[in-house]
Automatic annotation (TrEMBL):
SUPFAM superfamilies in the record: Nucleotidylyl transferase
A cellular-component GO term for this protein: cytoplasm
Cytidyltransferase-like domain location: 5-123
Keyword Nucleotidyltransferase: yes
GO biological-process terms attached to the record: teichoic acid biosynthetic process
InterPro entries registered for this protein in UniProt: Archaeal_FAD_synthase (IPR050385), Cyt_trans-like (IPR004821), G3P_cytidylTrfase (IPR006409), Rossmann-like_a/b/a_fold (IPR014729)
Record keywords, A-Z: Nucleotidyltransferase, Transferase
Protein name: Glycerol-3-phosphate cytidylyltransferase
Amino acid sequence: MKRILTYGTYDLLHWGHIRLLKRAKEMGDYLIVALSTDEFNAIKGKKAYHPYEERKMMLEAIRYVDLVIPENTWEQKKDDIQNYFADALVMGDDWEGKFDDLKEYCEIVYLPRTDGISTTKIKHDLESTTE
């Protein structure tokens, strides 16, 4: 069984997220999503619209996702790879090169982002329609 691991906040879930999860799942048999907790988002200076438990519930409802675990720190990736026996870490290409130091533990894959959609774009579009 090939296990794939990915990370994200997955706030304001959109078709770019779904496409990334689908492509990640196609790379293996079992997809683990490490979901940023509200506390970790605060450390990163981010605020999610949906709280962690709601974002977790939405991810668990997606057929490509087999397991959702909490992401509490930047440094936990090596332990997650080892503890969940991940064969590959899959991230969007906006993170290109940032996790290459983990290549000794598993394959690292950076997938192209979906053009024309992002949580940042959705937030910007919503703000500009209310002005």
